[in-house]
Amino acid sequence: MRAALVGIDFGQGDFAASVEELNLLARSAGAEPVTTITAKRSSPDAAYFVGSGKADEIGLAVQDHRIEIVIFNHALSPAQQRNLEKRLNIRVLDRTSLILDIFAQRAASHEGKLQVELAQLQHLATRLIRGWTHLERQKGGIGLRGPGETQLETDRRLIGERVKALRARLDKLRKQHETQRRSRGRSQTFSVSLVGYTNAGKSTLFNAVTKAGVYVADQLFATLDTTSRRVYMGQEVGNVVISDTVGFVRELPHQLVAAFRATLEETIHADLLLHVVDASSPVRMEQIEQVNLVLKEIGADHIPQILVWNKIDAAGLEPSVERDEYDKISRVFLSARTGQGLDLLRGAIVEWAKSAPGARLNQAYDTGEETDQEAGEEAAEPDSSPTLTHVGSH
């Protein structure tokens, strides 16, 4: 599908990196970006977001390049999206809808599909009127109530009922996860969660440490589901549970953060976070900030964190470890792809596990079998797809 990308620079953050990320998101969704239209504004236009003149410029680009869809690098209001589609006579997608579409394509587990559907319905509920514009002007009052109002009320009721049912099923799965975590807590198994920006290398690192063999691809949001593995870390520590969890991007839609809260709770209850960073990215500091913002939103900003600077082979760095003022390991430099520095990371995990408050570590030997699939696959619905995280791979 031939796509035109639209990005508006409001003077905040790295605009070029944001547009490049939109390009990757569009390709991940299956679109073919043909042209990119940019502009600078101090604030969005109320009617078209970009202003009427820039909207006409987009319209010319649509004709010249035989564009099939226009994708905005921003969240559009229902009115702005409706006005743009009417003016351009073509489908218009905003950043939130684009990410939701990618998630819908990638959700493999039962729980992942439920979470994506919930996020989509919550997003759709704000845009229902778009499908009934020909009935919007029906007069109200006794005897004059139009069919448009009736249909909208019906749609809203059906969506509301479905949202309620989805939340009930997700609550049930959340309780199952709580039971699994309590079981791990009784044995006082040290738990580690991988977090990071999409495509920072979390999945590759997870495979390298656990030999799990989960799906890895050089694309945004390669998979959405969380996988946990028990890994034996030696006699001093015993077993450690490592979870590959959700990854993030700029302006991750709020609906997704809310819908994936059950999956993200694995992060909230971890003893240690491995924050994986693409050391070769020129915007790595901004990406670190974005991840920390989401961690704060889900209540995981208090958990001890090691910054894992991955892809040192591409960044021209050497494997090493840095410590903070309290002599705690705060950074590990490695390459998950080549294996350089993996021994340093294992050593860091062992050191943190040994110093965990009141830890009575499980000494039983384990070969690294899977302990639970936080993606929520049900026994009645085995999923042959490799499970992974909420974002990102490579």
Automatic annotation (TrEMBL):
Residues 384-394 have a biased composition (Polar residues). GTPase that associates with the 50S ribosomal subunit and may have a role during protein synthesis or ribosome biogenesis. This is GTPase HflX. Monomer. Associates with the 50S ribosomal subunit. Residues 367-381 have a biased composition (Acidic residues). One of its GO terms (molecular function) is metal ion binding. It comes from Duganella vulcania. Keywords: Coiled coil, Cytoplasm, GTP-binding, Magnesium, Metal-binding, Nucleotide-binding. Belongs to the TRAFAC class OBG-HflX-like GTPase superfamily. HflX GTPase family. It is found in: Cytoplasm.
